[in-house]
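Researcher: Re-running this chain for the archive, since the previous output was lost when a drive failed. Same request as before.
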Amino acid sequence: MKVDKQTMQNITACKIIGGWIQRYFSSEEALAMLFLLAGALAVILLFGSVLAPVIASLVLAFILQGLVSILERLHCPRGLAVNLVFLLFMALFIAVFLLVLPLVWDQGTTLLNELPRMVQPWRELLSKLPEAYPGVFSEAQVHSWSVTAHEQLSKMGRWLLSVSLATLPNILALLVYLVLIPILVFFFLKDRQPLMQWFVALLPSKRRMIDQVGAEMSRQIANYIRGKALEIVIVGASTFALFAVLNMRYAALLGSLVGLSVVVPFIGAVLVTLPVIAVGLFQWGLTDPFFIMLAAYSVLQIIDGNVLVPLLFSEAVNLHPVAIIVAVLFFGGLWGGWGVFFAIPLAALVKAVATAWPARA
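Model: Regenerated structure tokens:
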């Protein structure tokens, strides 16, 4: 029987695909890992917003577990260690929501109201360009730039107003979260072992690959989350202290933005520098205090990148910068803010799964 060329190509393609499936998905462990990853991804995509308090509580409990472990190594009973760490967490939690957030909100509102006045000197400078450089800039160009800048500022103001109004109906949900998160954190800390045993019981009995990947990710995620939380606090507090000493306006707001910028590697530091320079120019202009602030801020960024990061991330994930940027873009687009925060651990998870995945020769 004669077989035509198209049929032969289809048979060859089926053999290649079948061989690939046989090589990488023939073991029970590989299928279990595949279903586990697919299930976790489906839960995140479908119920991520609903489970946000649970995810936030898990992250906080993961961070606090390090303090509990330290107290246990000092021969403190686990129950007492959990209670002491939880009381410390509640004190910080209340301080942030009663002291830090109102101050940041107040400064953000003030900055938004002053934006038109901050832009006015630059508009006046633009209007003088055609007179100073008649062969380079025309009045039509400058007018077009001025109109565009005004429209963009108006759009930003309307967007911020719409965001503020849109959040009003969610105030009740926010209050519920503020109650739920401390409760969940306490029980995640208190019942860590029973919860872990329950989760492990759901996994298949033969799980060498899952255990290998789980142990690797537990070590790396613990190092990353705790290190990143400390970096946010240290960088944010140091920046606030620096700007406060220099009497720079909006010190709390800018300090918070700089602290949160470390969540996004490389990109965050560049983006947050723009408002710092803008506020500095508005307050001082091109004078000595502005350049002193800029030099001190640059030194702080250098210390963060060359001293603090290596110190906090002693077991940092070995990923290429390009892989980190791609992970931030991909997981951030897939899962929003949580995806940006967990981009590096998720990229490390992909790498760990690819390394441990069983393959038949």
